[in-house]
Every structure is written in C-alpha cells, then in structure tokens.
Amino acid sequence: MLRDYILQNWALVLILPAFAISLKTTIFLDKKSVKRLYILIAGIFLLSVVVFLEFNLSDMGRYITERTILMAVRYSATPIIVAMILFTLVKKVKWFIFIPAIVLTGTNILSVFTGIVFSLDESGTLHRGPFGLLPYIIAGLYGAYLVFTLYKRCNKLYTEVVPIAFLAFAFASGLFLPFIFGKNYSHMFCITIAIALFIYFEFLILQGTKKDPLTGVLNRQAYFADTEINPDRIAGLVTVDMNGLKEINDNQGHAAGDEALITLALCLLQAERRGQSAYRIGGDEFVMICRDASQKDILALVDRIRKSIDETACSCSIGYCFSEEKNKNIESMLREADRMMYTEKYRYYITSGKDRRKRSNATAP
Fold first, then answer.
1. Could you write out the three-class secondary structure of the chain?
2. What's the CA gap between 203 and 31, in Å, rounded?
C-alpha cells in the first residue's frame, strides 16, 4: 500500500519536503507564519493519505461505512486547509475565519448518519444530499476572499499580481475540475494546492528583497530603485509619518508598535490606485510615489488615507508635493512634502499636548 501511495503521489512526496526545507532556511518570514506553513504542509500530506485510502477502498467495492467517514474527513479538511492558507498569508486575519469551516465539519459528521451532504448506497455509488454542494461553496468563498484580500493589499505591481493570479487559477481548478474529471481529479487536488503554495512562497522570497517584511509595503531600497525608473512620469509624492509611535512602544511594548505600523501600511495599500505605490523608508516614515497623476488624484489619495486612518486607533501626519510640469527632482519633491508633513506633525503635538519627538524637523505654522 505504501508503494502505491508513493507512486500515485510522487510529485507531492518531492515537493512537500522541499517546501519544508525552504521554510527552514528562509529569513523573510516571521516565525508565526513559518509555523503555520508547517501546519499547512502537514495538513496537505494528511489529506493526501485520506484521499488515497478512500479511493483504494472504493476500488475494492467494500467498506461503505469506512469510506463514508473518510469522505466526511475529506470534505471537511479541504475548506479548513484553504482557511489556514488565508490565516497564514493575510496579515491581521483573526481565528474566527475558521468558523464556517468548523460548522461545515459538524455538518459533514452529521451527514455520515443522515446523508444531508453525501451518502453511499450499498453498491458504493455517491449520492449528494440537499447540502451536497456546501463543501465546494465554503471552499470557494474562502478562496475568493483570499485572492481578493491578497490583491487588495498588494502593491499592484506585475511581480505581485502574477503569483496571486496563479493562486486564483489553482483554487478555481480545485473547485471546478472535480465536476469535469470526477474522482480522477481528487487525486490531483493536494499536489495542485501544494505546487500553488510553493510557487507563491518562492515569489514571496523573490519579493523579499523589495518588500518590507513587517508591513508588506515596498522597502527603502525599492524606493530608491523605483525613483530612477522613468522619473519624468513621477508627478508627486505623499509622505506619511505615524504620530506617537514612541509612546506606543514605551507604554504598550514594541509588539503593539509593530501592529500600529502594520495597520498604517494596510491603510496606505487600501488607498492606492493605479500608478501609486507605497514604501516604508524609515521606522515610522512612509512615502507614496504617484506616477502620471494630477493634483486632483494626489489630493484624493490623501483624503482616502485620512479616511482609512480615521477608522483605526492610529494617527499620522501627511504631506504632499505635486509637480505639474514633472520638472522637479525627487529630492526637492521629498523635501517639500516633508515640510508640509512636519508642519502637520507640529500641530498634532501642540494640540495633543504630547512631547514632540522630532523637534529639529518640525516647523511652526
């Protein structure tokens, strides 16, 4: 039986250990994400064993009760794995994302006795109950939400959109191909997800040289590199600096400060539109480059950032510079945007009564 499993799942046997080794050597992911990916690897392997056993029993034409239990496990495990992918890849997603998958698991267990999701007759033929499509619907909703959230929070660059599109294709194939190829595709589902995850992980590693590992926006090196690319198209800069980060670190700890920076970065990513990119260039300092933009576009961007920040517990100061003729160099645009931002920061510290962290940079209005 072990020989048959290896022959049927040889690609999976190769890729899962390679994935685990890559996780062991990476420096671009935090420990929590790495642990969750290890759990995913184990989950995909166990699901492949369940699928193998289920269809082996099917070929024997016996063991109806055992097959029914294995089907309940398979239909439950698939949405849980997709939910775990969502929980792992998307920052600030809470544990209750698993609730629909847990409810589905209870429904599948109930179906073993009632057939409300699936049942097997005495000949071993599968029959779908009134909730027969529920496992696919739940898994599909998880996959759609994952792809939507990854796209919404990415920097809209080609190198980030392509792996998200690949992941979307893999999940779509997992949903629709079983209806086309039947149980033959069920053997391929685990390797499809494993390959999609591994390729997405490798893209993340490649992006690690350009992205800030904490916040997910582009990093300082990417900022300097990107300002050298078609600088004549850069119409404006927006500078954003978090207010009170030192106070958060001192009073609540650096973990709370990191969470605040992640929240601010998500607000910037949500405010982005085509031609706009966010960068973290310092501890609490962010810059957004706006290409081929009008002054109206830049003001609209600033307004979106403020509205998004207002929905959180964070506070920030914002400045911007617009070059109508696109004839200002990056350094002068950054200085102009910084002057506006520090003026706003000065007002914040005056009105809030808190100590000003950047006395040397702030200027009175």
1. CHHHHHHHCHHHHHHHHHHHHHHHHCCCCCHHHHHHHHHHHHHHHHHHHHHHHHHHHHHHCCCHHHHHHHHHHHHHHHHHHHHHHHHHHCCCCCHHHHHHHHHHHHHHHHHHHHCCCEEECCCCCEEECCCCCHHHHHHHHHHHHHHHHHHHHCCCCHHHHHHHHHHHHHHHHHHHHHHHHCHHHHHHHHHHHHHHHHHHHHHHHHHCCCECCCCCCECHHHHHHHCCCCHHHEEEEEEEEECCHHHHHHHHCHHHHHHHHHHHHHHHHHHCCCCEEEEECCCCEEEEEEECCCHHHHHHHHHHHHHHHHCCCCCEEEEEEECCCCCCCHHHHHHHHHHHHHHHHHHHHHHHCCCCCCCCCCCCC
2. 18
pLDDT tens-place string over residues 53-70: 988 888 777 789 999 999
Question: How many Cα atoms are found within 13 Å in the side-chain-facing hemisphere of 239?
Answer: 26
User: What is the fold of 220-352?
Assistant: Alpha-Beta Plaits (3.30.70)
Per-residue pLDDT, averaged over 222-233, amounts to 89
| Listed residue (271, 277, 341, 278) closest to 304, CA to CA | 271
Residue type (1 letter), 156: K
134 Cβ contact partners less than 8 Å away, ≥ 6 residues apart: 104, 107, 117
- The 10 Å Cβ neighbour count of residue 228 is 8
Q: How far apart are CA 125 and CA 117, in angstroms?
A: 14
Candidates 28, 17, 24; CA nearest to 205 is: 28
Q: What angle do CA 251, 257, 262 make, to 5 degrees?
A: 155
pTM: predicted TM-score of the whole model, two decimal places: 0.71
- Alpha carbon distance 114, 83 (integer Å): 26
| Whether pLDDT at 361 is above 60 | no
- Please compute the mean of the pLDDT values over residues 27-41 and round it to a whole number: 86
Report the distance separating Cα 167 and Cα 337, nearest Å.
38
> pLDDT of 68-91, one tens digit each?
999 999 999 999 999 999 999 887
**Which sequence spans correspond to the domains of the chain?**
2-207, 220-352
